[in-house]
Amino acid sequence: PSGALEIMDEMGLKEVSTLTDDDFLALIAAKDAARQDVHVELERGRRTRFGNLLEKYRSNPREGNPRPSDKPSSPSSRPLEMKNALDIFSAHYIQDPAVQPFLKALAELLVHQYQAPMVWRWHLPEEAFTERAFPDFMDKAVDLLMGYFCYVPPSNDTADHAWDVDPALSDRQIARMIRATRRLKLLETGTSGSFTETGIARTNQDGAGDEKVDICE
């Protein structure tokens, strides 16, 4: 039986055509309440999954990391791996309207960071992960962010989660990533979350720490 018929049975009601106005309004209210209960339960499950994903990466940063090796990336290979991860992620979701605001914001974060002496931070509410293409998008987005950006947990000042651009990336490397993601800037949509400058100084803006053979060669 349909949900409406089940609710009618629980309420001791019979045929819809025999309902009084009050009974009909009560039926509609009961259906809305049941629908809301289901939505709340689904959202609770999504938030739990999101929290578990973050905890997995924080307790074991290399688990599920897109890097192909358990060994730490060298200064030369890490930017290339990050660029490739961005390419794969954006190609997978660029046609999904629900994810496009996230993609455009990701591209804008890199633009903010380019030539800025301080690290930029991307603030995102949990809804940015739980309400889009669940669970595939959540898993892949957290994988990307926790693998190549610096996680900042919620604080007393904000309930948002945040990620900083890696302070060791040089402007040359970021410029290459901006070129690789330039089509994301053209998406006709808004952006997810917000951006702030952290006041944390970058450690390799001029590229002095870049190795000779790297993403920018």
What keywords describe this structure?
217 residues; alpha+beta; 4-stranded antiparallel β-sheet; 50% helix; elongated
Can you describe this structure?
The chain is α+β, with helices and mostly antiparallel strands. The chain has a domain at 79-201. Helix content is 50%, strand content 10%. The chain contains eight helices and four strands. It has helices at 3-10, 21-59, 77-93, 100-113, 127-130, 136-148, 171-180, 182-185, and strands spanning 118-124, 150-152, 161-164, 194-201. A four-stranded antiparallel beta sheet has the order 2-3-1-4, with helices on one face. Strand 2 (150-152) and strand 3 form a beta hairpin. The chain is elongated. 25% of the residues are buried. Residues 55-70 have a biased composition (Basic and acidic residues). Residues 53-79, 197-217 are annotated as: Disordered.
Give the topology, please.
Layout: H1 3-10, H2 21-59, H3 77-93, H4 100-113, E1 118-124, H5 127-130, H6 136-148, E2 150-152, E3 161-164, H7 171-180, H8 182-185, E4 194-201
Overview in brief:
The chain has eight helices and four strands; from the N terminus they run H-H-H-H-E-H-H-E-E-H-H-E. With 217 residues, the chain is α+β, with helices and mostly antiparallel strands.
- Helix and strand sequence: HHHHEHHEEHHE
> How do the strands of the widest beta sheet line up side by side?
2-3-1-4
- Give the low-confidence spans: 62-75, 213-217
Shape from CA axes?
Answer: elongated
Q: How much β-strand is present in the residues?
A: 5-15%
Largest sheet: 4 strands, antiparallel
Based on DSSP secondary structure assignment, what is the total number of beta strands? 4
Rg (CA only): 23 Å
> Helix amount, in percent?
40-55%
State the end-to-end distance: 65 Å
What is the overall pLDDT average? Answer: 81
Structural class: alpha+beta
Please tally the helical runs, counting DSSP H or I stretches of 4 or more residues. Answer: 8
Region (Disordered): 53-79, 197-217
Biased composition (Basic and acidic residues): 55-70
